[in-house]
Design a protein that fits this description.
It is a single chain. This protein has 209 residues and is mainly alpha-helical. Helix 6 (98-110) runs antiparallel to helix 7 (114-126). It has helices spanning 14-23, 29-42, 46-56, 64-78, 81-94, 98-110, 114-126, 135-148, 158-170, 174-187, 192-203. The chain is globular. 68% of the residues lie in helices and 0% in strands.
């Protein structure tokens, strides 16, 4: 009898090859999950890695801090700062230390939420086992909060928005700076100061989508 030829996997994606392996039972689900998860991370496909990891959280061993920390890291790598905050809070509730407080204030600042960030800066200062001087950062965040209180809406806020953007640049928060640049360019696309800010971010290596 002639032996049946194997399936031709030429041109199939990695995911399709794994799916085929599962279908014919040449690989079990756990090995397929680990292989796909590693593949996504190796190729910096953080959103897919996060989605895959989250799908398995309910079935994972009940070591919540380890699981939530991995989800937090994946969310940060994928640029999903809201989800990073969600998992960061879960981590901080279990282990209220410096590192999780730092993660939370950074992600709140990336979303231009300085009031929430200030709360976790203060908690990080209280739990500052690494002796990091956060006082200069704290002052910049207070400056931003005070500037935001003066915003009224429209073109009249142009200089205030520029000042807020410059404060964010001082602490290397280019994600929030971009928000202000894009908002201001809608009002005054030819404004030299705004375009100068954008050029500064590009020179720092920030990529505008």
């Amino acid at each position: 009898n002639e032996k049946r030829p194997a399936h031709d996997t030429t041109g199939l994606s990695f995911e399709e090859k794994l799916a085929g392996g599962l279908a014919v039972k040449t690989i079990d689900w756990e090995k397929a999950f680990n292989a796909l998860f590693s593949y996504y991370k190796e190729h910096n496909r953080w959103r897919e890695a996060l989605k895959l990891f989250e799908s398995q959280i309910p079935d994972m061993p009940f070591d919540n801090l380890r699981v939530y920390t991995m989800a937090l890291q994946l969310a940060e790598n994928s640029g999903d700062f809201k989800l990073a905050i969600y998992y960061g809070i879960k981590c901080f509730d279990i282990s209220p230390g410096f590192d999780y407080a730092k993660s939370l204030f950074i992600n709140y600042l990336k979303l231009d939420q300085p009031v929430d960030a200030l709360h976790f800066i203060d908690l990080a200062i209280q739990n500052n086992s690494k002796q990091v001087n956060l006082n200069p950062l704290r002052q910049v965040v207070i400056n931003i909060i005070e500037l935001q209180k003066t915003l009224k809406g429209g073109v009249a806020d142009m200089q205030v928005n520029v000042n807020i953007a410059r404060q964010y640049i001082m602490i290397g928060n280019y994600d929030a700076t971009r928000m202000y640049i894009e908002k201001m360019r809608l009002l005054q696309p030819d404004n030299k100061e705004i375009n100068s800010l954008k050029k500064q971010l590009i020179q720092e290596g920030y990529k505008f989508l």
